[in-house]
Amino acid sequence: MSTTTTTLSTLRELASLITTSIDTIESTYASRDVEFPSLAAHTFSPTDPAEKLRQDPVVSGAIQTIVAATAQLSAEVASPIVSGMQASQSYTKHFISACLNTALELNVVELLSEAGPGGMHAREIAAASKTDPGLIARVLRLLVTHHIFREVDTNVFANNRISAAFDKAKSPKELFEKPAERFDGSGSESLAALTEHMCTINFRSAAELTNTVIRTSPTDSSHSERILPFNKAFDTKLSFYAWLHQPENVLPFKRFALAMKGVSEMKPGDGILEGGFDWGSLPAGSQIVDVGSGNGQVSLHIARKYPELRIVNQDLASQIAGAEQYWRQNLPSHIDQDLVEFQGKFSPARCSYHPIIMIAHDFFTPQPVKDADIFLLRYITHNWQDDKVVQILQHLRHAAKPETRLVLIDDVVPGAARNTGSELDSANFNTRPVAPAPLLPNWGIAKAQTYYTDLIVRLVLQIMYLHLL
Ligand SMILES: C[S@@+](CC[C@H](N)C(=O)[O-])C[C@H]1O[C@@H](n2cnc3c(N)ncnc32)[C@H](O)[C@@H]1O
User: Keywords in UniProt for this one (predicted)?
Assistant: First the structure.
């Protein structure tokens, strides 16, 4: 078979994957008598039945295939020169981030939400946000070009389903009058908070990646290990967490807290009950210590299903402070029966790595619970260099009884090679679904978020203890 025939057959296979996936979506929506949501809709609600059906495993699998196949199809057909030029100019994608952040910080989504489907003229948006009408129109038009917002008439803009997802659910008047309080809310602003966080902290840190990876000599560890891109971008020697706790960073602190709530919601804690460790095998009265628990949203799911288990939540004071209220709202019976503890809440010590952070329990200090049945660590280890992870685990080991077990949950980043039988490939793919050929086995850009998150942790978070002292 000639190369042209092989390539064309790949194109047809990709096109066929797209067509089959559209058929799957069509039949699933038809069987439930629901319309697939339109991009042109000017509102978005995650509880809308049409949006909820998108999370059905059959539909979400078909969507994943379409996203992966369309990107791969474009890569197959475009000229390598055009693809190469686009890759080398991918910084232009940063304009999307910059424009989106501008629109969010200027509360354009809420202005357009109030205006309704007829939209609002750039002149009026500029008057409300005290900006330049010409510039606002250009910023919004770039976003429209990437399917965020719609231009319903020349210089008249309206929300579409994507822009509406960023709605902070507050009136523009309130948002403009009290800008510092834009993220004090019910939590429906968490996607806006996450996006603003990514478009500022991660965006600026990413720009410093090259400047922090090059070693000046084989023994020089200052660039690759000691200084994170975040430190360079924000001209600070503090860790990201310590920087957030500076008095002048109250807004980024609140925004990050809300953003993390949004991330937790994307990865619901009840997943902890599916597969893996059998929580039901623990005898009544067993004690689970959730180390770095946040507000305890994960252990809450365990306690809800197995109400006879005792829970100890441990975290920094800033996290643990709101945890009791969260449990009182969601599982008051566990508090009333004294089955849940929020460790050290009334005796905050000084954090060992920064004088400003008051801590309730620092996992770099000896573990106070000596009779735990389970130490649970979810999404903790990825934030730290290996030697720091060893320290965290050693404190748990020293406090453990012979029967204590460790449940450690974190993401594994898969490779992008189709299984060649090597140890790495089998570790990557044996336990997870592989995309059908000719798609990349890791679903390409349809699952690229894993790789973004992996790099973000290295850019911003992977905390070197030493320069925090
Ligand atoms: C990614 S969150 C994971 C939260 C929770 N385990 C979950 O799965 O949703 C990491 C947590 O580690 C906490 N943390 C960071 N440094 C800590 C320290 N030195 N001692 C205790 N907790 C810490 C953070 O406050 C945060 O709540």
Answer: Methyltransferase, S-adenosyl-L-methionine, Transferase
Choose between 126 and 253: higher pLDDT: 126
Fold classification of 267-409 is Rossmann fold (3.40.50)
Catalytic positions, written as ranges: 382
Alpha helix locations (H) across 289-412?
Answer: 297-305, 317-320, 323-330, 332-336, 386-399
The 10s digit of each residue's pLDDT in 64-80 is: 999 999 989 988 888 87
Residues touching ligand 1 (Cβ under 6 Å) are 264, 292-294, 297-298, 315-316, 319, 361-364, 378-380
The preferred substitution site among 315, 320, 376, 464 for testing ligand 1, maximizing ligand atoms within 8 Å of CB, is 315
At 359-368, the pLDDT tens digits run 578 898 999 9
The alpha carbon of 394 and the centre of ligand 1 are apart by a number of angstroms equal to 17
Ligand 1 centroid, distance to 214 Cα (angstroms): 30
Task: Report the nearest-CA residue for atom 10 of ligand 1.
Answer: 380
pLDDT of residue 183: 85
- Judged against a pLDDT cut of 70, whether residue 427 lies above it is answered with no
Residue 463 C-alpha to ligand 1 middle, in angstroms?
13
> Which atom number of ligand 1 is nearest to the Cα of residue 409?
8
Domain ranges for the chain: 3-88, 91-171, 267-409
Average pLDDT for residues 15-43, to the nearest whole number?
Answer: 94
pLDDT at position 220 over 60: no
β-sheet bridge partners, residue 158: 150
pLDDT in the model for residue 433: 75
Q: If you measure from the C-alpha of residue 54 to the centroid of ligand 1, how many angstroms do you get, rounded to a whole number? A: 31
454 vs 1, higher pLDDT? 454
Instruction: Out of 197, 264, 290, 316, give the residue to mutate to test ligand 1, the one with the largest number of ligand atoms within 8 Å of its CB.
Output: 316
Look up the CATH number of domain 91-171: 1.10.10.10
Q: Do domains 91-171 and 267-409 have the same CATH topology?
A: no
